[in-house]
Amino acid sequence: MSVLDASAVLALLNDEPGAESVARHLEGGASISSVNYAEVVSKLSDYGMPADAIQDALAGLGLQVAPFTEDQARICGYLRVPTREAGLSLGDRACLALATVDGAVAVTADRGWSGLAGIAVEIELVR
Questions:
Q1: How many other CB atoms sit within 10 Å of the CB of residue 47?
Q2: How distant, in Å, are the alpha carbons of 21, 48, 106, 116 from that of 33?
Q3: Residue 9 belongs to what domain range?
Q4: What is the per-residue pLDDT for 111?
Q5: pLDDT averaged per 10 residues, the chain (length 127)
Q6: End-to-end CA, the chain
Q7: Beta pairing class for 30-33 and 2-4
Q8: CATH of residue 35
């Protein structure tokens, strides 16, 4: 199972480099934190996409949207220090927290994640 970061979903929807890799993860079943889902909706709204088109586009992906739980919030907070130098956002850490809880691979298009050390979750960069 894979957990997709907002950057991975946006790469797919915008047909950017790495889109094919993200599509393969969707075939095997993928989830997204509700925090990252909100990021994707926000970005698509910024692009001027109407709400019904956003809903249709995201529903078509078949992603399982996972609620942001208390355990994930705690892990997200603990990840602040080891990810600070890489500049990871709250949303980035929410993705890593869900992947940690689910024992899944965290999938991102954000190259800033490549230098992370001391993180106990597998990370796949799609570009």
A1: 11
A2: 19, 23, 11, 20
A3: 2-125
A4: 92
A5: 97 97 95 98 98 97 97 97 94 98 97 87 95
A6: 19
A7: parallel
A8: 3.40.50.1010
Which helix (DSSP H) or strand (DSSP E) does residue 107 occupy? strand 105-108
Judge whether 107 and 30 are in contact, CB under 8 Å.
yes
The pair of structure tokens assigned to 94 is 């929410």
Q: What is the pTM of this model?
A: 0.95
How many domains are there within the chain?
A: 1
Q: What is the pLDDT of residue 88?
A: 96
| pLDDT value of residue 115 | 80
Rg of the chain over CA atoms, in angstroms? 14
* pLDDT at residue 96 in the model: 98
* Pure H helices in 47-121: 51-59, 70-78, 80-83, 90-102
